[in-house]
Design brief:
Bound molecules: adenosine-5'-diphosphate, magnesium ion
Number of helices: 18
Strand content: 5-15%
Largest sheet: 5 strands, antiparallel
Low-confidence stretches: 129-145, 285-289, 339-441, 462-491
Shape: elongated
Distance between the termini: 14 Å
Mean pLDDT: 71
Number of strands: 13
């Protein structure tokens, strides 16, 4: 998907105000009537309608006039709201090239004021699996205010929480930096997805490490559920990093054993095919006490789930039970209907000619740093679980746009990089004000904020060497990807 951030530069305060109003209206309307947008935005002299035309022109909103006349946010509009919020927070300052196209996400490089390059994952649930999902709409149809943006936001929230917890427990995952709406910011992994790696110096070691991860995850109470060559990154030194966590489940999930076996099976299949690993190799495990099944594979039943219970920790982390259930329903029912691994193979991004593009990151100056928050009385009246707007949160904390801008730019001058903002404008992504988990969410937002500051500080130390690419890789497929890349390079 094209993400022309240039348009973002020219959006005015009023544009963002109206965009935010559409987002707020979507909490209880799939299509938001223009009168409601106008009321929420509160612009004088019918200004809203003129702005809506501009937003429509830039494809930030979609117009529908079937049942009644109204608008909804597009993914692009949602992207801009998230990007603006994160830029205002000082998490990053510019958006670079696209480095990945996942099944249901787009991944871009972003750079902080001091030039540290991070990865930005924009979740796009419902994109590639639209057909599959259509056939199982029952549950979705009954959900009064269902929409893709909401599910994408849940996916991001879950991914961020899991990435953070896994990192804290010593798993090799990207550092979770921040999260807003459907967008997760994380450290950039140095390396390539395993699927692009043609040769390994030590395939046996890598195999052991990877299988060991599946087992260690289970020992911690978790199953990845999409553990395959697309979600394992290999660095130049053959360091393994796992990515992509929205579909993870607890070992107490009713299909846990099936998911575990499937993860193991994917690894075996891939290593046999690509690296011709002998079946004997599959029997020895790297020093760990893994009990094998009759095929010599790690068996779910014999994994000691005693190393801690990350699944329970995560369940209590603010990602509410209800949200977990909703995600699970969407992701796992969806996955069962799709053929297991064909999607990724057509959608993964070619990162072949990416080296030079790393430095070509345009400075992204937001035209109006002043928050586009809607009037206070409206902001307080929220009552549903639809996508949060954080513009209003920023407004309500009393931090002006100028302050945030000043914070950001001052950080760029400092020799020692500081997290670019105070805790004052924590994003209280109060997505669940309709349920009793609101308090949990508040404390979760605080936790996120604390973590974000630490992670930004940590990430500042890491710059990506421009030439540290693995040379042994496949060419990517798909003309669409190269088109996106060409487009991205223009930014
Ligand atoms: P999806 O959930 O849509 O499959 P992934 O998280 O697997 O998305 O990411 C898709 C691709 O983007 C990956 O295969 C990888 O090439 C790239 N990617 C994702 N996260 C990072 C990261 N932190 N650093 C570098 N590349 C990444
Ligand atoms: Mg993936």
């Amino acid at each position: 998907m094209k993400l022309d951030v240039n348009a973002l530069r020219y959006l005015s305060k009023d544009d963002f105000r109206v965009l935010t109003a559409v987002e707020m209206g979507m909490r209880n309307h799939e299509i938001v009537p223009s009168e409601l947008i106008d009321r929420i935005a509160g612009l004088k002299h019918g200004g809203t309608y003129k702005v809506l035309r501009n937003l429509l022109k830039n494809k930030l909103v979609h117009h529908e006039a079937t049942k009644y006349d109204g608008f909804r946010l597009t993914y692009l509009g949602y992207d801009f709201l998230a990007i603006k919020t994160l830029v205002n927070r000082g998490v990053f300052a510019s958006v670079g090239r696209q480095i990945g196209v996942g099944k249901e996400s787009d991944i871009f490089e972003v750079a902080t004021e001091d030039g540290t390059v991070l990865a930005m994952k924009l979740h796009r649930l419902g994109r590639t699996s639209f057909r599959a999902v259509k056939s199982k709409r029952d549950y979705l149809a009954h959900r009064r205010s269902f929409n893709w943006l909401y599910l994408s936001r849940l996916a991001a929230l879950k991914e961020f929480a899991f990435m953070k917890a896994l990192g804290e427990h010593g798993f090799p995952v990207p550092t979770a930096v921040d999260c807003n709406r459907h967008c997760v910011i994380m450290s950039l992994v140095q390396g390539y997805p395993l699927v692009q790696v043609k040769e390994l110096q030590n395939p046996d070691d890598v195999f052991d490490t990877i299988l060991g991860l599946v087992v260690r995850l289970a020992e911690h109470g978790l199953i990845h559920c999409d553990f395959n060559e697309f979600n394992i990154m290999i660095g130049d030194d053959e360091k393994v990093t796992m990515i992509d966590f929205p579909q993870m489940v607890s070992v107490s999930h009713r299909n846990a054993q099936m998911f575990f076996d499937r993860d193991i099976e994917c690894i075996y299949k891939f290593f046999k095919k690509r690296f011709h690993l002998s079946s004997e190799k599959c029997k020895e495990q790297d020093g760990s006490e893994i009990n094998d099944d009759e095929n010599g594979r790690p068996s779910f039943l014999s994994v000691q789930k005693s190393d801690g219970s990350l699944d329970k920790e995560l369940a209590a982390s603010g990602f509410t039970r209800k949200e977990q259930v909703e995600m699970d329903k969407y992701i796992h029912e969806n996955a069962e209907e799709e053929s297991s691994d064909d999607d990724d193979s057509t959608s993964e991004q070619d990162s072949e000619d990416g080296d030079e593009a790393t430095v070509k990151i345009n400075s992204l100056k937001i035209a109006d740093q002043d928050s586009a928050g809607a009037p206070d009385h409206i902001l307080r009246g929220r009552d549903s679980n639809e996508p949060e707007t954080s513009e209003e949160n920023e407004t309500s904390t009393g931090l002006s746009g100028e302050n945030k801008l000043a914070n950001t730019s001052s950080s760029s001058n400092g020799a020692t990089m500081e997290p670019p903002e105070s805790g004052g404008n924590a994003d209280n992504d109060d997505d669940s004000s309709e349920d009793p988990d609101g308090e949990d969410d508040d404390s979760f937002a605080k936790q996120l904020n604390k973590h974000r500051k630490r992670a930004i500080a940590a990430a500042h130390g890491r710059r990506r060497p421009l030439s540290s690419r693995n040379t042994l890789k496949d060419k990517g497929k798909g003309t669409m990807n190269s088109k996106i890349q060409r487009q991205a390079c223009k930014w």
